[in-house]
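lol forgot to send this yesterday, sorry. C-alpha cells for the thing we talked abt
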C-alpha cells in the first residue's frame, strides 16, 4: 500500500509498498443503527479527479455555484442547487490543492508554480503569475489581495486584480516534507499560515510583514521520517485563537494577536479540522475521530470504530460531522457524542479530498472526478 500521506524529498514523492510493516489493518465497516437517511441531491462528472497524483483537490462552494476540476487542467462551474454544468474550461495546468472562489474570481495553484485566476462568470483567464515553487495550498483572498503558499516555504500576496506580486514572506522548511500545504487563513487584516516546520505565522495582509511566529511542535526521533511535523490540514481562527494540528505532533491553539501558546495535546493529523459550538473536530492518521474542547484542550469524545480506514478531514454539516474513508464511504457522526448516525457510499475509489459543507448540504468529490451533493433527513 502507499503511505497515507505522500512525502516529498527534493521534489520526489516517496511511497511505501505492500510489505510496509507499519501498515494499519482497517476495521470492517461498523454496524450501527442509522437514525438519519442520506439523500443525494445531484451528481455530476467534473473531469478525471486526482488519479495517482497523491494530491488533494477540494471544490469551492459559493451561494450559487460549485467550482471543481481535476489535476489535468479541467475546471468546471456547476449550479449549487441542481448540479447543472454552467461552463467548463480546459487549461494546460496541473492543478494542485483545490479551488478558492469569491469576489468574481476562481483561484488555484499548480505544480509548476503558477498562480491562476479565472472569471467566476465565464471561466476566462484573468491573470497568471509565476511563483517560487509548487503551489499546493488552496489560495484565499479578501478581494484586494490574493494569497498563495508554495511548498518551499513562501507565502505570496498578489494584487487580486492584476496578479502582480505585492509581497513575499519566506521561512525555511525541512528537506523532507509531506506533499501538501495548509490553506492560509485571513482575518481582520492578517494572514495566518502554517508550515512544514510546525511553525505558525501571522502576517500583515497589506505588506506581508510578520507580526509573530510560533512553533507548535518539535520534531522527535532519529530518522527524517520520524521528524516530520508538517502543518498540512488548515488553520481555524476563532474566539481569539489560532487552532492547528501537525502530523506526528500536536493539536494546539495560540493567541491570535501575539502567538502565545494556550494549550496543546499530542495528536497526529494532516487533514482538515473543523469546529462547532466550542468543539474542535480532528480525524487523526489512524482513523480515530475526536472532539476537543477549544478552551481547555480536553477530549470530549472519541470515535474509534473507523480505525484504520484512512479518513479524510472533518466537515460539520448542521449537527453532524462528516468524514470519508478509503473505500468511498461517507460517515456521519453526532457532534455531541460522536455516535454514528448515517452512512452512504459515494464512490468505491475514495475521495479527492475532504468534503465541503455549505448551508446544510455536503459537497463531495471522488478520487476519479464524481461531484455530488448530499443532505441528511431524519428517519
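and heres what i got for the seq, position by position
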Amino acid at each position: 500500500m502507499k503511505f497515507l500521506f505522500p512525502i516529498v524529498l527534493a521534489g520526489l514523492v516517496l511511497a511505501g509498498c505492500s510489505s510496509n510493516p507499519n501498515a494499519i489493518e482497517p476495521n470492517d465497516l461498523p454496524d450501527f443503527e442509522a437514525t438519519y437517511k442520506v439523500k443525494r441531491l445531484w451528481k455530476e462528472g467534473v473531469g478525471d479527479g486526482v488519479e495517482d497524483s497523491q494530491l488533494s483537490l477540494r471544490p469551492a462552494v459559493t451561494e450559487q455555484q460549485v467550482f471543481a476540476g481535476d489535476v489535468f487542467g479541467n475546471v468546471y462551474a456547476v449550479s449549487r442547487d441542481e448540479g447543472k454544468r454552467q461552463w467548463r474550461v480546459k487549461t494546460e495546468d496541473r492543478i494542485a490543492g483545490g479551488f478558492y472562489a469569491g469576489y468574481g474570481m476562481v483561484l488555484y495553484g499548480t505544480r509548476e508554480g503558477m498562480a491562476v485566476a479565472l472569471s467566476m462568470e465565464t471561466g476566462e483567464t484573468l491573470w497568471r503569475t509565476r511563483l517560487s515553487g509548487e503551489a499546493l495550498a488552496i489560495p484565499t483572498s479578501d478581494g484586494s489581495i490574493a494569497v498563495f503558499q508554495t511548498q518551499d516555504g513562501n507565502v505570496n500576496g498578489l494584487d487580486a486584480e492584476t496578479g502582480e506580486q505585492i509581497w513575499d514572506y519566506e521561512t525555511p522548511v525541512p528537506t523532507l516534507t509531506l506533499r501538501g500545504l495548509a490553506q492560509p487563513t485571513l482575518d481582520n487584516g492578517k494572514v495566518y499560515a502554517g508550515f512544514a516546520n510546525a511553525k505558525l505565522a501571522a502576517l500583515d495582509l497589506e505588506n506581508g510583514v510578520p507580526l509573530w511566529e510560533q512553533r507548535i511542535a518539535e520534531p522527535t526521533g532519529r530518522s527524517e521520517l520520524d521528524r516530520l511535523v508538517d502543518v498540512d490540514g488548515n488553520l481555524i481562527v476563532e474566539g481569539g485563537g489560532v487552532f492547528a494540528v501537525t502530523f506526528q505532533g500536536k493539536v494546539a491553539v495560540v493567541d491570535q494577536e501575539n502567538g502565545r501558546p494556550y494549550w496543546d495535546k499530542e495528536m497526529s493529523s494532516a487533514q482538515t479540522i473543523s469546529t462547532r459550538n466550542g468543539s474542535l473536530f480532528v480525524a487523526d492518521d489512524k482513523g480515530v475521530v475526536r472532539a476537543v474542547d477549544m478552551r481547555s484542550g480536553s477530549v470530549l469524545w472519541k470515535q474509534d470504530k473507523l480505525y484504520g480506514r484512512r479518513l479524510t478531514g472533518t466537515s460539520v454539516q448542521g449537527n453532524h460531522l462528516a468524514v470519508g474513508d478509503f473505500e468511498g464511504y461517507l460517515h456521519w457522526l453526532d457532534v455531541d457524542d460522536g455516535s454514528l448516525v448515517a452512512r452512504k457510499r459515494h464512490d468505491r475509489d475514495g475521495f479527492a479530498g475532504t468534503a465541503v459543507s455549505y448551508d446544510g448540504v455536503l459537497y463531495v468529490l471522488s478520487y476519479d472526478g464524481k461531484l455530488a451533493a448530499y443532505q441528511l433527513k431524519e428517519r
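The first strand starts at residue 7 and ends at 9. anyway ping me if u want another try
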